[in-house]
TrEMBL record:
SUPFAM superfamilies: Putative cyclase. It comes from Streptomyces xiangluensis. This is Cyclase family protein. Keywords: Hydrolase. Its EC number is 3.5.-.-. GO terms for molecular function: hydrolase activity. It holds the Pfam family Cyclase. InterPro entries: KFase/CYL, KFase_sf.
Amino acid sequence: MTAPLGPTDAEGAINEAAKRYSNWGRWGEDDVLGTLNFLDEAKRREGAALVRRGASFSLSQRFDMNGPQKGWRRRTNPVHTMLATGTDAALGSQGFPHGIGGADDVIAMPLQCSTQWDGLGHIFDHGKAWNGRDAAKTVTSDGDLVTGIEHMAPYVAGRGVLLDVGRVIGDERGELPDGFAITEEHLTATAEAHGVAVGRGDIVVVRTGRLARSRREGWGDYAGGDSPGLSFTTAGWLHTSEIAAIATDTWGFEVRPNEFEGAFQPLHQVVIPNMGLLIGEMWDPDALADDCAHDGVYEFWLTAAPLPITGAVGSPVNPVAVK
């Protein structure tokens, strides 16, 4: 684990990083995609060419009542309810002709209760949303009026790269301890160990092993508690690498407890509203990671489109990696 960055000047460090790594105006004042602009048609062709075996892996946790949520920030696990069932059909109570019957269901859930993307309207910095917009006029009770996640729905597909930091840096189980801050050096060393490069337009998946531990020991404080994650100091790497998106197997993406005393998710504050970076959380890369360790190939075609929910600031997703 790394030592805290400092007990007193979190705001100064956040302000400095926000200014240094800002992408405001980079793609014009009307931009709604942020770093997804790096994922262009050529990058998608490159990603599609990586499919050789046809083996596919879902990188999503399940969406059910047995999930990790415990009510923090009013987030609950999904509630799945049947509207019509086989029992109704067998009893002939559905009113359909010639013996046909059917089942229907409904689900109610916060959009960020399981595997998901953080949209660009999810986090603000001193009242500013992505690209310098006024947060009060961007996201209202009607939703995200400008950068709703529906705008990203066609574009999140391309070259995926797994950085299994847990296996390279972690313990014999391939897991990092809570509070472990993953630095640029850890990311670089992991990429080198895997023999894979990370660069412009990539969708990066970072495995810490935190989800694997929760499966073994129970959810505990997986949703909101201590966890390994990216160090605040990786902001520069996230910016200069020009990746399109990054996702982790943890609840909060960045290390928790956060590295500044009294801070709350400072890396989020830099990379979402200022950098315009698409962040995924609570992904499940474990089966993919096992396969990558077996065949030594850590790049793949990855499609992870958010649901086009108008005005949403986040979305459930079922990422699929194909090798």
